[in-house]
Design brief:
This protein has 538 residues and is α/β, with parallel strands linked by helices. The chain contains 18 helices and 19 strands. The structure holds 2-acetamido-2-deoxy-1-O-phosphono-alpha-D-galactopyranose and zinc ion.
Length: 538
């Protein structure tokens, strides 16, 4: 039976604020840190129940607010996400359970919701509960983790503290723990195991290549600085990393005028790198939990150029397609790409000329699931979150394949090393960074040559506050509105007046706003189109 007494007494120490409604969205629960205590306690309970439901397999819990800033005030954000046993996002039906549990007004109501979940989800409470959890560097983290631990305690779960680490490393742990000792072992379930795996694969992939010039890494003053320092040690001379924005203990520094979201949103170099990045040199920015990556460089005239998730997708997808071809596996291994509506139209065009491309709704779970339908599925959001998934049959094909020429043999070895280099559980800035470096070194590309694969269409992203964002309903992978009535045809009329025009409107899943995206052949036109569509929405 449910340990009602221990849940109740601990729940009384983590009361739900009566005036707040919580929602498990695309980023888990994310809101102002000092309102999240009851949510964290309850997430501890949910993780334990989810583990019991899955026969004691280990569930992950990550405490982070990713790229959100951390102002030194009571308004700093934090958040929490659950990770399913294969290292993937929580199954959608449990997002609904998590929302219901987080909103039960009292301890008694909480018990009732939990009892009914145990019934409907057929949870065998006699099964063990195993959890692994971690947090990013936010100052609000330790108190929230303490509340989470009370949730584990209330359920009698066995919980392993992975300390302060990146979101993708936590996902790696979950998969490594759940595959330990099986023929599908994902790696040793330790940080050493993770860094060993990545750095060994990297070294194999660049063996014999001229070492790349040093890479500047903007760590967003977050946990990526700690992981980056570690990775540096494992890479040795194979790749020289210069870590910047590593002040993980300076209040308010996290994601402040630096990091992947700053670069992508403002399309600017972080001011802190102004005297560091030299013309021609490559740099990249991680976000606050190191699951997003954006590259950039300065041209000879010192002008800043950004290489976002779309450019990364173009670079790596074309590389994989080429390796598959050289290996002689074209007929057996189908490579495909998944994007969202935010992908730059020029990237979609470039990719679609080379391989199948699918567009899905915003949110990693949509991208991940669509990518799983290919033998090798590449997915990247324009904001720099993405990875590559190799299906198990494809990994088996690679292992069993008998190449007939040295070139085929090399290509197959590279593909196998890529399956080890790439964190296949979730987007991973450090793993993606090494992947990009591999391709640049194989192609002998500098930033400018990579950038010239295609030319981005000028684009503008705007947000509009509206009384009720839920009035905005979409279809066709969020590219068209079905409500409010008549709005889509007005947008269509506007778009038709702009050369190369494209625009769409959708409600954000993480903020109380409606987002407007527009692109057009010319900068001024993209800006104008975005402004006029925003005018229709408001
Ligand atoms: P919303 O707020 O639903 O647009 C944002 C990002 C997504 C994704 C999620 C989860 C944009 C335009 N949207 O979603 O790509 O990263 O956050 O973190 O970047
Ligand atoms: Zn992130």
């Amino acid at each position: 039976a449910l340990p009602v007494e221990s849940i109740k007494s601990l729940s009384d120490q983590h009361p739900k604020p009566s005036d707040l409604h919580f929602q498990y969205g695309t980023a888990g629960f994310r809101t102002i840190a000092n309102t999240l205590d009851s949510v964290l306690f309850r997430v501890g309970i949910i993780a334990a129940l989810r583990s019991k439901r899955l026969d004691g397999r280990t569930i992950g819990v990550m405490v982070t607010a990713s790229h959100n800033p951390e102002p030194a005030s009571s308004y700093d954000d934090n958040g929490v996400k659950l990770v399913d046993p294969r290292g993937e996002m929580l199954e959608a039906s449990w997002e609904v359970h998590a929302t219901a549990i987080s909103n039960a007004p009292t301890s008694d109501a909480l018990i009732e919701v939990l009892q009914s979940l145990v019934q409907t989800a057929k949870i065998d409470l006699s099964k063990p509960a195993n959890v692994v959890y971690a947090r990013d560097t936010r100052p609000s983290g330790p108190a929230l983790v303490a509340a989470l631990e009370d949730g584990f305690k209330a359920m009698g779960a066995t919980a392993r503290d992975a300390g302060v680490t990146t979101t993708p490393i936590l996902h790696y742990f979950v998969k490594a723990i759940n595959t330990k000792g099986t023929k599908y072992s994902y790696g040793d379930d330790s940080e050493e195991g993770y860094f060993q795996k990545l750095s060994n694969a990297y070294k194999k992939l660049v063996a014999g290549k001229t070492p790349q010039p040093p890479l500047i890494v903007d760590c967003a003053n977050g946990v990526g600085a700690l992981a980056g320092e570690n990775l540096k040690g494992y890479l040795g001379d194979a790749l020289q990393l210069i870590l910047e924005n590593t002040s993980t203990t300076t209040p308010g520094a996290l994601n402040n005028a630096c990091g992947a979201d700053y670069v992508k949103t403002s399309q600017k170099l972080p001011p802190s790198l102004a005297n560091i990045l030299q013309p021609g040199q490559r740099g990249c920015s991680l976000d606050g939990d190191a699951d997003r990556l954006i590259y950039f460089y300065l041209d000879d005239r010192g002008v800043f150029h950004m290489l976002d998730g779309d450019k990364i997708a173009a670079l790596v997808a074309a590389f994989i397609v080429e390796l598959v071809k050289v290996a002689g596996l074209e007929d057996q291994i189908k490579v495909g790409v998944v994007q969202t509506a935010y992908a730059n139209g020029a990237s979609t065009k470039y990719l679609a000329e080379r391989l199948p491309v699918k567009c899905v709704s915003t949110g990693v779970k949509h991208l991940h699931h669509a990518a799983e339908r290919y033998n090798v599925g590449v997915y990247f959001e324009a904001n720099g979150h993405g990875t590559v998934l190799f299906s198990q049959p494809t990994i088996d094909t690679l292992a069993e394949y008998q190449p007939s020429t040295p070139a085929q043999s090399r290509a197959v070895e590279h593909l196998v090393s890529l399956t080890e280099l790439i964190n296949q559980t979730v987007g991973d800035a450090l793993s993606d960074m090494l992947f990009v470096e591999v391709v640049l070194s194989h192609k002998s590309y500098n930033g400018e040559e990579w950038d010239s694969l295609y030319v981005d269409l000028p684009n503008r992203l705007a947000k509009v506050s509206v009384p009720n964002r839920n009035a905005f309903k979409t279809e066709d992978a969020e590219r068209r509105l079905v409500s409010p009535d008549g709005l889509q045809s007005k947008i269509d009329d506007l778009v038709n007046r702009y050369q190369g025009g494209r625009s769409f409107v959708r409600p954000s899943g993480t903020e109380d706003v409606v987002r407007v995206y527009a692109e057009a052949a010319l900068r001024a036109q993209a800006d104008e189109l975005a402004m006029r569509v925003a005018g229709l929405v408001y």
